[in-house]
Design a protein that fits this description.
The chain is mostly helical. Helices cover about 80% and strands about 0% of the residues. It starts with a helix and ends in a 15-residue tail after the last helix.
């Protein structure tokens, strides 16, 4: 019983650490997305606009992909969800 409790505590700690990493990652992506959107409003060059729109599109798909992790089969904690940027 004590071993199970220790294992559960280790898993909880790993989960908290992973959540912190995901949060930091989403914060960085939000900054990149915000700056990309600001550039989209001010850039006139068509080629650069095309590249910025591609960056914006990719960044918007990241939360959907990370959200799939939280609802993947085998997870029992279905209340968690990825934060949207």
């Amino acid at each position: 019983m004590e071993e199970r409790l220790l294992q559960a505590e280790k898993l909880r700690a790993v989960g908290e650490m992973a959540g912190g990493v995901a949060h930091d990652f989403n914060n960085a992506l939000a900054i990149i997305l915000g700056n990309t959107q600001l550039l989209l409003e001010s850039v006139q060059d068509e080629e650069l606009l095309k590249l910025l729109k591609a960056i914006e599109g990719r960044l918007r798909r990241v939360p959907k992909r990370s959200g799939a992790f939280w609802s993947s089969p085998g997870r029992t904690d279905t209340k968690r969800s990825a934060r949207s940027i």
